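Lab notes, practical 5.
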Amino acid sequence: MMKKTAISRREFIKNTSLGMAGTAVAADVIFAAQPAIVPTSAKPAILGGTPLHAKAWPDWPLWDPAKDEAQIIQVLRSGIWSRDKVVAEFEKKWAEMLGVKRCLATTNGTHALISGLKMLGIGAGDEVITTPYTFIATIDAIILCNAMPVFVDVDPETFQLDPQKIEAKITDRTKAIIPVHILGLPVDMERIMTIAKKHDLIVLEDACQAHLAEFDGKKTGAIGHAGCFSFQTSKNLPLGEGGALVSDDEEFMDRAFSFHNFGRPYGRMVGDVSGEYVMVGTKCRATEYQAAIGLAQMERLERQTEERNQNAVYLRTKIKDIPGILPYRLYNKVNRATYHLFPFRFKKEYFNDLSRKKFIQALRAEGIPCSSGYTPLNTMPYLKDALTSRVFKAVYPAAELDYKGYLERNRCPENDQLCEEAVWLPQNVLLGTKTELDDIAAAIEKIHISAADINQKI
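Output from the prediction step:
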């Protein structure tokens, strides 16, 4: 066994910054969960032992036929399936839950991002700063607006875009920042908004994984100039597919409505312009049955969000003292995260150099669903495809389109490391019982104890 595995848990925590982790620390004290206790003789399931968790985790998405089906059946029987009164009701209720004036439902979160960028005036020749630790839709939206994505490295402790590294990437082409509240953990929006104000930049929040998360008393998505959400099946508010754009800016939202409906005039645009089509638009309208599903899911979202929060804090206290396991850290002004995913970093040197791949295999064998998460988006071939496109060649200087030069300018070493260490647990496990969460901690402890054997035999 490697020498590092011999350090005590107390020494390990003392030597990391996670022992002082924002609001999570106070909650840790409240829960005061005891470390998982696993007999040293317990054989890992991956080596033929008995799995610690043998039953099914909570289903997702959830559907209660008795409570949820009346409105969707009514919609189906009505024959009115494209956007109408049910979509409007969904928009009104989602805006109310977030504390914003307006909401526009869209076909998905990607189109919410595209609509937001376009109606905020982002286009060819502009640079948009964002994180490399996100889903591809964030970057696709920027490129599909013919803008240039500029990657800023992450703070690996929080898994979020690091505000301290933003200003070094700002140029005279920079027009916007897209902070992504990835995994349902809020970005440090105080520093983001300060930087944006200083440099006169637009802030479009990607809150696609952060339904009802809060930073400094405000819901994510409601802090910047506008915010975007996704309601895809895995999300905390699932519709199958769906998205939303939200803002307090009435004129912006009127333009966004027009854009999503083929460019037809809407709201303040009516009367100011003439003609059936007043702008170049698209069609990304939500359907009535999508909205009916969403209204049913909304009824339990607040309760589920609070349950995930309490269980995430509990689980964090159970695993944070295991050497080599570094859970997320929340920023000090985070009032609530929403844990679309529960992340931690895995340090293999504390597990006898057991690879993350083998660790995940061993954890799954114990009945714990998990994954390795994202790979770096700032080094993938789709970027070369964009840089060599006719539009980009016509708009950007040749020096900016050199692929090797672009990759060098957008290096994010902290993100590279994070992508090699991250482990995710899906949000539905946080709807389980405390006993089930104990199984997760015990499974990790069990793998830690037997890391040498697993590494040798698998």
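Observations recorded by the TA: The longest helix spans residues 288-319. Confidence is low (pLDDT under 50) at residues 1-33.
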